[in-house]
From TrEMBL:
NCBIfam families: PRK14126.1
Subunit structure, interactors included: Homodimer. Interacts with FtsZ.
Role summary: Activator of cell division through the inhibition of FtsZ GTPase activity, therefore promoting FtsZ assembly into bundles of protofilaments necessary for the formation of the division Z ring. It is recruited early at mid-cell but it is not essential for cell division.
Organism this protein belongs to: Pallidibacillus thermolactis
Places the protein is found: Cytoplasm
GO BP, sorted A to Z: cell division
Matches recorded under InterPro entries: Bac_CellDiv_Activator, Cell_div_ZapA-like, Cell_div_ZapA-like_sf
Protein name as it appears in the record: Cell division protein ZapA
Matches recorded under Pfam families: ZapA
Major localization class: cytoplasm
SUPFAM superfamilies in UniProt: Cell division protein ZapA-like
């Protein structure tokens, strides 16, 4: 049984270095880390009183909120596509 190769990438988020290990490409991992870093800086600039833990939680809440909205939109579009395909096949 062959094991899928994992990439080990060092990234910087809010001035801290983290080693991320994942199956995704190094470019993808860096893109994710850069997006997290940007989002954390954006939230910190609006809420300068937050400590790092609070900032991390708010960033996670914002990211999951965006994910849920996109997932709901995707599901609606998938339903429309399925309906259109069904109508076409009739």
């Amino acid at each position: 049984m062959s094991e899928e190769r994992k990439n080990r990438i060092t990234v910087e988020i809010l001035g801290q270095q983290y080693v991320i290990i994942g199956k995704e490409s190094p470019n993808h991992i860096r893109h994710v880390a850069t997006t997290v870093d940007e989002k954390m800086k954006e939230i910190r600039n609006k809420n300068t009183f937050l400590d790092t833990n609070q900032l991390a939680v708010l960033t996670a809440v914002n990211a999951v909120n965006e994910y849920i909205k996109l997932k709901e939109k995707y599901d609606r579009l998938q339903e429309r596509l399925n309906q259109l395909e069904s109508d076409t096949n009739q």
